[in-house]
Structure to design on (310 residues):
């Protein structure tokens, strides 16, 4: 019998890529969505997926859906966005903490194989070589809400021996990235031969290509008797300004197409670079794509998918 996989956040970049990857294996997929318009990435494969329209804040309906499906594996990828100006702390708490609480409560009486949660490096704050043992120093409401989710999962595991793995992702980029994100935005501007405006001072980030992030999700779901928190990152420092220059060079445009219009308020974290030794040692996972390879693949994807302005 096919294992049943329940996916929240399936219409986001990570979810879309995960779903396409899972279709290569023998699973029965149940994907949660709220807005039908966001299902266009699955147009060619929609008959292979069971879509469930559901607001995760509606515990009663969620509980009924979970009892009916009885999933074997849960990928909890649903989340608020990182630091958008139109979200306040209450929005982040609702769209991170409370939906996670509802999901855990609905799963409590089921004997699931694995619960994979997409955490965030935003819980760490500034720093290099950030490990899972790093003291928390979040600098955003988003980071606080993700940390509360992490603490909730630890407590749930302690009380119910819950099979949970938290993957703390750093800066994911690649296919289906939103157009207002740095990598996608720079590529789109360069392909249109338009000037790209840098809105914040140079920062150091840890970029990971989405295919590597998806592979971490797959690996984590197949590991028996392993729980805990794992950083999913390249462990390599990358200047955001240099990243944009690399993109423009790959598309054969000069750097004078890049201009700076700094907004000090957007410069929240100067650097966020992770340590992935725990994931390498225990999950046996490591990134396969260099920043150069990942950017080339992303540029190729954007060229072939210009209609998809998500």
């Amino acid at each position: 019998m096919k294992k049943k996989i329940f996916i929240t956040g399936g219409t986001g970049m990570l979810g879309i890529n995960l779903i396409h990857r899972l279709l290569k294996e023998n699973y029965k997929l149940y994907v949660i969505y709220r807005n039908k318009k966001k299902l266009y990435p699955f147009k060619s494969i929609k008959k292979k997926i069971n879509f469930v329209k559901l607001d995760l804040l509606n515990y009663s309906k969620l509980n009924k859906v979970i009892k009916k499906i009885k999933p074997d594996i849960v990928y909890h990828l649903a989340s608020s966005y990182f630091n958008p100006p139109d979200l306040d702390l209450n929005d982040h708490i609702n769209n991170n903490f409370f939906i996670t609480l509802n999901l855990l409560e609905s799963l409590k009486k089921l004997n699931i194989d694995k619960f994979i949660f997409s955490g965030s490096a935003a819980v760490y704050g500034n720093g290099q070589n950030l490990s899972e043992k790093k003291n928390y120093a979040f600098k955003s409401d988003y980071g606080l809400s993700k940390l509360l989710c992490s603490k909730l999962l630890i407590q749930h595991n302690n009380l119910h021996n819950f099979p949970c793995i938290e993957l703390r992702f750093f800066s994911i980029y690649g296919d289906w990235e939103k157009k207002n994100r740095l990598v996608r935005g720079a590529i789109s501007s360069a392909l249109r031969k338009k000037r790209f405006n840098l809105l914040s001072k140079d920062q150091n980030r840890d970029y990971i290509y989405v295919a590597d992030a998806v592979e971490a999700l797959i690996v984590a779901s197949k590991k028996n008797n392993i729980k805990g928190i794992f950083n999913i990152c390249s462990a390599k420092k990358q200047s955001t300004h240099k990243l944009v220059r690399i993109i423009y060079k790959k598309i054969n445009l000069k750097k004078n197409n890049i201009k700076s219009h700094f907004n000090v308020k957007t410069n929240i974290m100067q650097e966020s670079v992770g340590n992935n030794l725990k994931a390498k040692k225990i999950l046996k996972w490591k990134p396969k794509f260099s920043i150069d390879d990942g950017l080339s693949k992303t540029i190729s994807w954007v060229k072939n998918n210009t209609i998809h302005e998500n």
